[in-house]
Design a protein that fits this description.
The complex is a heterodimer. By secondary structure, chain A is mainly alpha-helical. Chain A has one domain. Chain A contains 8 helices and no strands. The longest helix of chain A has 24 residues. Chain A is elongated and about 95 Å long. Chain B is built from 7 helices and 8 strands; from the N terminus they run αβααβαββαββαββα. The longest helix of chain B has 30 residues. By secondary structure, chain B is of the alpha+beta class. The relative contact order of chain B is 0.16. Chain B has one domain. The chains are: A mainly alpha, B alpha+beta. At the A-B interface, helix 3 and helix 5 of A face helix 1, helix 3, strand 2 and helix 4 of B.
């Protein structure tokens, strides 16, 4: 004998319960820190897996209304500087809070010098994120031929390589080979190869930049600070 | 009975009133100054052109450079201390040469919240990466001709920039650069303009408070650079006595406090004089 359909009241109660459960789940995803990775733009870059969103994304000053007012005043010309909305823009300060080293072959602040205007225009060399764009799940996002921007006139007086000169490499525009011997930031305790034939292959370097093992070894000079902020 | 024209106008009037109300509320929300507006990043009140501040920090740096070169490096070499471009390497028992001491201070500034930039370059650098190019090379040429500091903006990054001559103040500087195997110029002599320090700051006008903050940060950074040197000295097999005495007295080094006090004694009169007349 067929069951009589459930009364309308029961259907309503069940519907409300399901609706409330869905709403609570959505709220939990929005507010619980365990779920913050769900609404990140993408996977964290190499070594950043344990960072919390707030380690880099700090809340902008003021209330939403203050921020909107400030932006509007800026757009109509009544205010000299723009204001952030929601969160502050992530810039070098957030990166260098953990990664500023006492010695760095290419510290990002160095590119603020006037003579690097070309490198700034071509690469954004004065910004960490130009090479290390976050939420890409890799170590480096820049194609490794950027050296060409500053080292076109490379002419070393006492050539350290024995089987080919740096000058010849520049002439050949072999820019994809630089990282085969030179660690860009120089943060590994090692000596550069003296024979070009011993340079790490381009595929090894590409694998490293994509987050793979370091061909430069694991003897790091300056470890990144954890929780520097 | 309503006329046709009246009946068709009423719905439009209602819509207009609703949109008008929304517009008024939005305008109040966006323009009324409750809560208080966010602080503007632009400096308000009495301000100082950044060129004046650049002159002060450059003079402070010049005092430090003379102190480091003459009293630590030159006197130290006579009493048995070593200074080397590879001083940071573990196996090298040496301290930083003048340009590298400046770089240590510049890095220390970058670790603070004060956005003051300090760089050292030349048209004949030992390290090719310090070669002036582009606009900076043009201003450096102008400085060589006139001997005057150069001020110009780096428009693409919104930085104000100043270049000050880096003059050879000790014969040791000329000798070292002339004898260095990678030096592109080997006839340096006393009082030659060897290069320039370049300073940068993101504002063209600053407050007195910001000015004092820059000077204090620079001085702290000299202290940090000296601390780094003393930390290296602590690894030497034969360690100099660190106290009140200086290398000119023998195999000694001053403490941080003694070192900075001597620097302040030399630099402060000029700095205070500049500050007193800074609004003139």
């Amino acid at each position: 004998m067929p069951q009589p359909p459930p009364p309308e009241r029961t259907i309503k109660i069940v519907s409300y319960a399901i609706g409330a459960l869905l709403a609570l789940s959505a709220l939990a995803v929005l507010v619980l820190p365990q779920f913050e990775r769900v609404y990140a733009k993408g996977p964290p870059n190499t070594g950043h897996q344990t960072l919390a969103c707030a380690d880099c994304h700090t809340e902008a000053a003021g209330t939403v209304r203050q921020q909107l007012q400030a932006k509007l005043q800026y757009w109509v010309g009544n205010r000299a500087t723009d204001a952030s909305f929601g969160h502050e823009t992530v810039g070098n300060a957030q990166c260098t809070a953990c990664h500023l080293r006492d010695v760095d072959n290419h510290p990002v602040h160095r590119f603020l010098e006037p003579r690097f205007a070309g490198a700034r225009a071509a690469l954004g060399a004065h910004l960490c994120v130009s090479c290390h764009r976050e939420h890409k799940g890799v170590r480096v996002t820049m194609i490794p031929i950027a050296c060409s921007n500053c080292h076109q006139d490379l002419d070393i007086k006492n050539e350290p390589i024995v089987d080919i000169s740096h000058k010849q490499l520049v002439k050949r525009q072999a820019w994809s080979t630089c990282l085969g011997c030179h660690d860009f930031h120089g943060n590994h305790r090692r000596a550069a190869q003296v024979q070009f034939k011993e340079a790490y292959s381009e595929s090894t370097i590409m694998e490293y930049l994509a987050g793979g093992p370091s061909p430069y070894g694991r003897d790091i000079k300056f470890l990144a600070k954890k929780g520097a902020r | 009975m309503l006329s046709r024209s009246t009946s068709s106008r009423i719905p439009y009037a209602g819509t207009a009133a609703i949109w008008g109300g929304v517009f008024v509320l939005t305008a109040i929300y966006l323009f009324a100054s409750r809560p208080a507006p966010l602080a503007d990043g632009q400096t308000a009140g009495r301000t100082i052109p950044i060129e004046k501040v650049f002159r002060i920090v450059a003079a402070e740096n010049s005092s430090m450079r003379t102190l480091w070169t003459a009293e630590i490096v030159a006197a130290g070499e006579n009493s048995g201390l070593k200074f080397d471009e590879k001083w940071r390497e573990k196996e090298v028992a040496a301290g930083p040469l003048p340009a590298l001491f400046l770089r240590e201070a510049a890095t220390a500034i970058r670790k603070t919240q004060v956005p003051l930039g300090l760089f050292l370059g030349s048209d004949y650098p030992i390290n090719q990466s310090n070669m002036f190019t582009g606009t900076q090379a043009e201003y450096f040429r102008k400085m060589r001709e006139t001997g005057e500091p150069q001020f110009f903006p780096a428009a693409d990054i919104g930085q104000q920039t100043a270049m000050f001559a880096d003059i050879i103040v000790a014969q040791g500087c000329a000798n070292c650069h002339n004898e260095h195997p990678k030096s592109p110029k080997t006839d340096w002599k006393m009082n030659d303009i060897m290069g320039a320090t370049t300073w940068s700051y993101p504002k063209d006008k600053v407050t007195l408070e910001e000015t004092l903050q820059m000077i204090a940060t620079l001085r702290d950074s000299f202290g940090t650079a000296y601390d780094t040197y003393l930390a290296k000295v602590a690894t030497f097999e034969r360690q100099p006595e660190i106290g009140e005495r200086w290398p000119r007295d023998g195999y000694y080094l001053p403490t941080r406090q003694v070192f900075l006090s001597e620097f302040e004694r030399r630099a402060s009169p000029d700095t205070v004089d500049h500050l007193i007349h800074i609004f003139n």
